[in-house]
Automatic annotation (TrEMBL), chain A:
Keywords: Acyltransferase, Transferase. It comes from Thermomonospora echinospora. It holds the Pfam family Ketoacyl-synt_C. GO terms for biological process: fatty acid biosynthetic process. The keyword Nuclease does not apply. Transmembrane segments: none annotated. This is Act minimal PKS chain-length factor (CLF/KS beta). Residues 2-402 form the Ketosynthase family 3 (KS3) domain.
TrEMBL record, chain B:
The keyword Cytoplasm does not apply. The keyword Phosphoprotein applies. Keywords: Phosphopantetheine, Phosphoprotein. InterPro entries: ACP-like_sf, PKS_PP-bd, PP-bd_ACP, Ppantetheine_attach_site. It comes from Thermomonospora echinospora. It comes from the Bacteria. This is Act minimal PKS acyl carrier protein. Residues 3-81 form the Carrier domain.
UniProtKB/TrEMBL annotation, chain C:
Keywords: Acyltransferase, Transferase. Residues 2-416 form the Ketosynthase family 3 (KS3) domain. One of its GO terms (cellular component) is cytosol. Belongs to the thiolase-like superfamily. Beta-ketoacyl-ACP synthases family. One of its GO terms (molecular function) is 3-oxoacyl-[acyl-carrier-protein] synthase activity. It comes from the Bacteria. SUPFAM superfamilies: Thiolase-like (SSF53901). PROSITE patterns: KS3_1, KS3_2. It comes from Thermomonospora echinospora. InterPro entries: Beta-ketoacyl_synthase, Ketoacyl_synth_AS, Ketoacyl_synth_C, Ketoacyl_synth_N, PKS_Beta-ketoAc_synthase_dom, Thiolase-like. This is 3-oxoacyl-[acyl-carrier-protein] synthase II. GO terms for biological process: fatty acid elongation.
Length: 420, 85, 422
């Protein structure tokens, strides 16, 4: 019997707020962070709305030495890791020599940094390219920088499955824990707020071209026509339940089940595989569909994809068989950070017994037959299912169980202090 | 371009690599090892490349690695400037 | 339950060698494939040499539509995956899509296509607010390197776990290591796994120029990559891919597959030291080697061949030599160690998988590929690096290692399967 994998700390940086408390309170109030792009002039572009992180001043949180060599998303990730470790009251130096590692999800790397260096190369010449370009943009950068900052010398890694990556990274961290590593940091933080990254994202054909923030991202709704990109995500400290108990720390919940599948190519005639991912994740958790109190949906906001997700949910849970929510409607889709943020929100929901709302979707498509939660709903919750899909056919499903109410006020206070 | 002073050199380093952890403790940085000021080889490569562009000079690779203090670095820059003028 | 993993198929795209046989012929002949860059005019760059692949995607069987939408790195991966599947003899009846997955490593993804498209939408770097009118439809596929694994999965028909792994220059070991984990834990029976990179583009050359990591040697491109030699002064960029069919051992035996080698151990550690620098003592790489050997239940004395990372930078070759001594003890001085980057350059994320292929072929053929261009050994690198000429030697256990930006240090152990029966 392998020990359970538990979440003992989280660091959240989201358009809805910096820190767990700010994010949760904005989410519960249904306050969407979608608005016009401010980090560059969005007016030349077909899509002009984003969910940006506001009020983040990297220099307030990170040493000056790290700033010239880091992209925006790496700075966010470094701070998320700091906060997660503080929240878990974990001091890596007190662990065995190779006792902790990092697994992050990446989608497109530090694209803003890369854009700047490409511009220097092509407008001025190769000698203008920064020495930091050799790593600041690449997909492995967040894992590398976090491991260096905290001296984490255990097994580390980076998984890229577009928007599904947050869950895959946490599952990989769980594998390392099961192999005997005492602690892992896992999750994803992302964002590519530059014109070059924006144009690249537009070519997915899935970005909303709406001008009204309240109408731009309507997953499962009538009029769904794409999504809005956002910045941010979440990183977690994951530990084995036995070692966390030895440390005397509380936990938010348990990573109880996980599975990943991949859809056959369009036109193959073969069925999609999200349903199988859900069923396998439930099996892995030893859970029945009835044990799941809420589903955090992938919520693509593209009719075909919404329909496919609704079909999978109906097949497993029955029509209107489980409450479904998409707090992403407030943050947009965060690349590799989105699923990790959903996991954070799910753990907070389990802890507090409240399902956070899906905003702006005033008219869900009736044929989907899903119980979409438009307002916060107070219900006893023991387990949640988080779904994530990546462009091209990646599916991931994760079952989390609550910490059985064991998380005490001292932990909540710690979350408060680590925000400041 | 005017001659590179230690003040200007340190400004450029800060722009290229941030505030070194050892800067505050050093009264006179001239003879302090870059590593003690908080700057690694990467910081010095970034700085050297910036100075090459700003001053229109070439700094040989090995000599950049061997110039481990601001004084040695300034000497290297002045020698290179004299050679190119 | 003790599930073991065998390599049952190998596919390779390497400089001067599309196809596994040509790759192995090149290595065992000790020939080098490094040359002056032809993809663009390298004269403005400090480093002007690379190991390029002469690759025609249409001739290799990709459709015009695939060629249009896939970056070169993805093309390499798909072509290698097809060769490995054909080699494995794995066909529809034995290939259950839900029990088959794909993991492809890549350090820099579609960097060539991204740069090419950037130049178009920015009008040669002149427009900061790049022009969406000129953005091609497939740009998003280049933007996210997950598309590499997705394309391979579509081609193979895999519907199990699929991912791209991107851990810089250890991607090619870590992707295969991850796939092995998935088979061992029971998630999949077959994994198509390997790595690919096609980084030879102006932005990559410029960023390695900026940190002086690549060799500035221009006079004789064929001898530019000189791991462990006293005169080495940086690595030579390469490109390519290697993809394997990995199978749960009993699954492979049941269908009578040819067992090329077993992947018996894998581990990765981080140096948590520096994004590009290495501590001289090789401590974390040694720990990765120790952990991989422990997983393989193999002692250092059993290692009959070490495929080194051997990039040819001053610091790497010293770091690695120290790591071998720390992990293998006195045996480090007896075991043959070689660096194939001397012949095919350093293809970043891909090279780890190309090196796994070299180990599997060494086990199968009893031939150890040499370190080319090693004429004057560095006194600080004092092991047996198999200089210049391949060596016949029975190899039952091989060790391969990788080291990458971000501090990643990985090690993998390969073993002969059923040697006595053959």
């Amino acid at each position: 019997m392998t020990a359970a994998t538990v979440v003992t700390g989280m660091g959240v940086l989201a358009p809805t707020g910096l820190g767990t408390t700010a994010h949760w309170s904005a989410t519960l109030r249904g306050r969407s962070a979608i608005g016009p792009i401010t980090r560059f002039d969005g007016t030349p572009y077909s899509s002009r709305l984003a969910a940006e992180i506001n009020g983040f001043v990297a220099a307030d949180h990170l040493p000056s030495r790290l700033l010239p060599q880091t992209d925006h998303m790496t700075r966010l990730a470094l701070v998320a890791a700091d906060w997660a470790l503080q929240d878990a009251a974990l001091v890596p130096a007190e662990l065995p020599e190779y006792g902790a590692g990092v697994v992050t999800a990446s989608s497109a790397g530090g694209f803003e940094f890369g854009h700047r260096e490409l511009e220097k190369l092509w407008s001025k010449g190769p000698e203008h390219v920064s020495a930091y370009q050799s790593f600041a943009w690449f997909y492995a950068v967040n894992t590398g920088q976090i491991s260096i900052r905290h001296g984490l010398r255990g097994p580390s890694g980076v998984l890229v499955t577009e928007q599904a990556g947050g869950l895959d990274a946490i599952a990989q961290a769980r594998r390392h824990l099961r192999a005997g590593i005492p602690a892992m940091i896992g999750g994803g933080v992302d964002g590519s707020p530059c014109p070059w990254g924006w144009v690249a994202q537009q070519t997915s054909g899935r970005l909303s071209v709406a001008r009204d923030p309240a109408r731009a991202y309507l997953p499962f709704g009538e009029g769904a026509a794409g999504h809005v990109p956002g910045d941010g995500g979440a990183l977690f400290v994951l530990e084995r339940a036995d070692t966390a108990a030895e440390r005397g720390v509380r936990w938010y919940g348990e990573i109880a089940g996980y599975a990943a599948t991949f859809d056959p190519p369009p036109g193959s005639g073969r069925p999609p595989t999200l349903r199988r991912a859900i069923e396998r994740a439930l099996d892995d958790a030893g859970a029945a569909p009835a044990d799941i109190g809420v589903v955090f949906a992938d919520a693509a906001g593209v009719p075909d994809l919404d329909r496919a997700e609704a079909e999978a949910l109906r097949a497993v849970f029955g029509p209107y068989g489980v409450p479904v929510t998409a707090p992403k409607t407030m943050t947009g889709r965060l690349g590799a950070g989105g699923a990790a943020l959903d996991l954070a929100t799910a753990l907070l929901a389990l802890e507090r017994g409240v399902i956070p709302p899906t905003v702006n979707v005033t008219r869900p498509v009736p044929a989907y037959e899903i119980d979409l939660v438009p307002r916060p709903r107070r219900v006893p919750l023991t387990a949640a299912l988080v779904l994530a899909r990546g462009h091209g056919g990646f599916n991931a499903a994760m079952v989390v169980r609550g910490g059985r109410g064991t998380r005490l006020p001292d932990n909540a206070r710690r979350s408060e202090t680590c925000r400041s | 371009m005017q001659e590179l002073t230690v003040t200007r050199l340190m400004e450029i380093i800060r722009e290229c690599a941030g505030e070194g952890e050892g800067l505050a403790a050093a009264d006179d940085v001239l003879n302090v090892e870059f590593s003690d000021l908080g700057y690694d080889s990467l910081a010095m490569l970034e700085t050297a490349s910036r100075i090459e562009r700003d001053y229109g000079i070439r700094l040989p690779d090995e000599q950049v690695t061997e110039a481990t203090t601001p004084r040695a670095f300034l000497t290297l820059v002045h020698d290179a400037a004299a050679e190119s003028s | 339950m003790n599930r073991r993993v065998a390599i049952t198929g190998i596919g390779v795209v390497a400089p001067e060698a599309v196809g596994t046989k040509r790759f192995w012929d090149l290595l065992t002949a000790g020939r080098t494939a490094t040359r002056r860059i032809t993809f663009f005019d390298p004269s403005p760059f400090r480093s002007q040499v690379a190991a390029e692949v002469d690759f025609d995607p249409l001739r290799e069987g990709l459709s015009p539509q695939q060629v249009r939408r896939m970056d070169r790195t993805t093309q390499f991966a798909v072509v290698s995956a097809r060769e490995s599947l054909a080699d494995s003899g794995l066909g529809a009846p034995d290939l259950d899509p839900s029990r088959t997955g794909v993991v492809i490593g890549s350090a820099v993804g579609a960097t060539m296509s991204l740069e090419r498209e950037y130049v178009v939408v920015s009008d040669g770097g002149r427009r900061h607010l790049v022009d969406e009118e000129y953005a091609v439809r497939h740009l998003f596929g280049h933007f996210v390197p997950s598309s590499i694994a997705a394309e391979v999965a579509w081609d193979v028909g895999a519907e199990g776990p699929v991912a791209t792994v991107s851990t810089g220059c250890t991607s090619g070991l870590d992707s295969v290591g991850h796939a092995v984990e998935l088979i061992r834990e029971g998630t999949a029976d077959v994994m198509v796994a390997g790595a690919t990179d096609a980084p030879i583009s102006p932005i990559t050359m410029a960023c390695f120029d900026a940190i002086k990591a690549t060799t500035p040697r221009k006079d004789d491109p064929a001898t530019a990559s000189r791991p462990f030699d006293r005169t080495r002064n940086g690595f030579v960029l390469g490109e390519g891919a290697a993809v394997f069919v990995l199978e749960e051992l009993e699954h492979a035996r049941r269908r009578g597959a040819r067992l090329r080698a077993e992947i018996s151990g894998f581990a990765t550690r981080s140096n948590a030291y520096h994004m590009t620098g290495l501590r001289a003592d090789g401590r974390e790489m040694a720990e990765a080697i120790r952990a991989a050997l422990a997983q393989a239940r193999t002692s250092p004395q059993d290692v009959a061949y070490v495929n080194a990372h051997g990039s040819g930078t001053k610091q790497n070759d010293r770091h690695e030599t120290a790591a071998f001594k720390r992990a293998l003890g006195e045996h480090a001085y007896r075991v043959p160690v070689s660096g194939i980057k001397s012949m095919i350059g350093h293809s970043l994320g891909a090279i780890g998988s190309l090196e796994i292929a070299a180990c599997a072929l060494a086990i199968e053929d009893g031939v150890i590929p040499p370190t080319a261009n090693l004429h004057e050994p560095d006194p600080e690198c004092d092991l047996d690096y198999v200089p210049l000429r391949a060596r016949e030697s029975r190899v039952d256990t091989a060790l391969t290692v990788g080291s990458g930006f971000g501090g990643f240090q990985s090690a993998m152990v390969l073993s002969a399967v059923d040697r006595d029966d053959r």
